Each structure stands twice: as C-alpha cells, then as structure tokens.
Amino acid sequence: MREPLIIQAGMGVAVSDWRLAHNVARLGQLGVVSGTALDSVLVRRLQLGDPGGHMRRAIAKFPLTQVGERVIEKYFRHDKTSTTPFARLPLPSATPSRESLEILVLANFVEIYLAKENHDGKVGINYLEKVQAPHLPSIYGAMLAGVDYVLMGAGIPREIPAVLDTLSRNEDTTYGLYVADAQPGDNFRLKFSPREIMGDKLPTLNRPKFLAIVASNTLAIMLAKKISPPVDGFVIEAPSAGGHNAPPRGKLQLNERGEPIYGVRDEVDLVAMKALGLPFYLAGSRGSPEDLKAALEAGASGIQVGTAFALAQDSGLSPSIRAQLLKKIATESLDIFTDPRGSPTGFPFKVARLEGTNSQADLVAARVRVCDLGYLREPYRKTDGTIGYLCPSEPVDHYVKKGGAIEDTVGRMCLCNGMMANIDQNQWQASQQLERPIVTLGDNVECVHRLIKKYGAEYTSQAVLEYLLNGLAETSPTKEKSVLDRLTP
Prior knowledge:
Layout: E1 6-8, H1 18-25, E2 31-34, H2 38-47, H3 54-59, H4 65-75, H5 98-116, E3 123-128, H6 135-144, E4 149-153, H7 160-168, E5 173-176, E6 189-192, H8 194-198, E7 209-214, H9 217-225, E8 233-237, H10 270-275, E9 280-283, H11 289-297, E10 302-305, H12 307-310, H13 319-330, E11 336-339, E12 349-352, H14 361-366, E13 378-381, E14 387-390, H15 396-401, H16 415-421, H17 446-455, H18 461-475, H19 483-486
Helix pairs in contact: 1-5, 2-5, 5-6, 6-7, 11-18
C-alpha cells in the first residue's frame, strides 16, 4: 500500500464526516472520519429525516438486516423541529446493552461504508483513546466496512494493534479500562464478542494499519519497540494543532493570556523518529506546500492537515459557523485560545472565540449543566468495587456527591454537547435552552488565508489537495506531479 502524502485529520464530532473523507480519499490521499460519538450522530441524522437518504442507503448494506431495520424504525422521523429534543442513547458504559453495541457497530460501519463508496482510495477513522468504552464495537464496525487505517491519540493506545489483529480474525477481544481509584488486584477490562453480534455471519476482514498520534519520542519508542505487535506508524502532533493538546512537560506555566507555555522539552526529535524505521507524519500548523516539502526533507512520509479541511465547503461543520470563521480569518480578527481548563479531560483544548458560542464565559456560566451524552465521563471505582462515572462538566452537586473536588468543576465546558452543536445537531434541553457550539481550530490559519485568496471562501477539499500537491510539484517537480493530472476525481 503506497503511503499517502497527506492525511486529512479526523476532527471533532463529524466535522471530518464521510463526505469529506470520501472526497479526499478518491483523490489519492488518506481521508479520515472522526469516530467520536458516531452512534449519536447516526441516530440524530435519522431524526433529522436523513437528508439525501444516505444513512438508510448505507444501513441497507449492513450484514444484519434486522439491526438496521430496528434502528430505522426507532429513530427515523420527518417532524423534528429546533425545539423538539433529540431522542438520546444510553450513556456509554463498560457494560453496554446489546442495543448499544449494535448501534455502535452499525454507526461506524455506515460512516466508513459511505466514505469508501464508489472509489478505491484509502479511508481511515480517528478515535480518542480516552473515550474507551466504545472502542471495541466501534473498531469492529469500521472493519466490517473495510476501513484501511485506524488512528488514535489522547492517551496511550498500546493495546490497539493487538485488538486489530484479534478483531480481524473475528475473535473475542478485551481492552484495558482505566478506572480512577482502582485497587491492587483490580482488573477492569472491556469485552466484545463479534459472534454475539454477528452470529454465524462472520465475514472475512482485512486488518487495517494503525497510526498512533503522539507528542513525544518516549511514547513513540514504547509503541514501536515495547509492545507486540508494534504500531504501523505515527502522527506527530505539535501543540499548535486544534482540539485537545498534550499538556506541557514539567510544571504547568501560563502566559499572559492564561494559556499553557510549551518549550524545548515538548519538541519531538525527528532524527530519532526517523531512526525507528516507521512511517510518520507531522501535524500542527502544517498546512502549506512549504510545510509538506520540509516534512519530506525531514524524513516524514507527509503531513496531517486539519484546519484547512475543517473550513472546506465539504466538511461537516455547520455552514453558519464556517461563514463566521472565514469572515474573521479574512479580516484577521479570529482569536484562538488554548484553554487549560475548559475540557473535562484535563487536556488543554483550543477554542475559536466566536460570538454566540461557548467560547464566551458568560454563556458557559449561564448554561444549565447536564450530562446527557457522557462520552468524556471518567470511570471510577466505587467503594463496593463496581464502576461509577463522573465528569467535571456535569452538574456540580452530582460531581461532588460522587467524591469529585468542587474546584475541578470551575471553568469546565460540556464538550460533548458543544461538539454536536458544531454540526447543527444541537440538543434542546429540558431547561428550554438550545445547546451552543464550541468550535476548535489550530493556531495557524495562514493556510486558510491562502486558500481563500486562490479559490475563494467556498473552497473545497479538492482545492486543498491541489494547493498542497501542485505547490509541492512546483518546488520539487521530480517529487510529485499534479494531483489533478495524476488522479481522476
């Protein structure tokens, strides 16, 4: 398999949706869908009437007809209004119901099936290691649809390569679950059995490649040399990348804006990465032909690009949000803040400051707290040895009652609901409030300036690829020819 030069990043909740990944993959680069919360995304698309019929078309291709029929019967509707609440799924759990497992498998199948439909390009799916409960059924669903790559960051995904091996053989598998306050002798593990879902209809599956998203040489070395099987490659993500960033090494220090300060210790040694002998990609402010050329010269296989694709016309981002962002970028008035406290995960999180979104502290404070999606809840060991769940962004009294420290709740935002609002799937809450977006982008938006100047504000993912690859061909004509000359859309 020829390694791609460009990975289109798996961003947010369905910002990197099947359309974006499809368009990138059919042009010969790696299109990646976001695997976060796909179960909720699928059932909300159905509740919005499934415009274009794409969900139902893909569901019809799922190997178990009765599963798809049950999901359509329960969630498909035509009468959803902005003040009609979306039907909610059960919160993610270490012991999910059969229905929850089926929807996770189905949702991941649907997204990958649509991303791969009618072309032979390569498609990947991106997961957050920290969102552990859905891992096994999600990955299996993506593999049922023929996913080519799995990417994972926001944690230490040491068990994923072995999981891919096991699931490719349709065998029962487990995954270590991090549980706060676990005691010596505890062994909390997630379990998944393909046969329990598929019965005797166990298909032949290909084992996808696995790219670990890392921010340090130490983690890369461990994943390359100290686990079996090793990872297949890396995405090296700098702290200028959008979304969650790895915390700075050493004692946390903030600049005058209140953002974490990164230093020399947070830089990755690319010479050492090259010595590992595995493909690696550079991410974080890598959105220009010059960045691609520099990455190749440093020994990388290419770059991962997020912000430029997130603002392309064919991404899953709300059109109204995209328009606001592009206007601010064009007038050089967009402020992106690395918030050290906003995310309930404890990881720094980049927030694009936009009016009417939860980038405004007063709107965050006015929101009535509710935890009705629960993807970022942390499992903890209760006194009786069972697992409970808590989130610093949930109602404060609930968090404290479970043993959480009240100071941990200060400044926290509900990323789960905010990210769903980014794709126009805002929940109407019982408090008579419509959830507001929380938009994230990388620090460097210069690439978007260039794209707007060259292609206009309604540029597409194809324009991003043309800009990057034709620009590379102009500086290194023997290295890469025009993507549009070489590939037929």
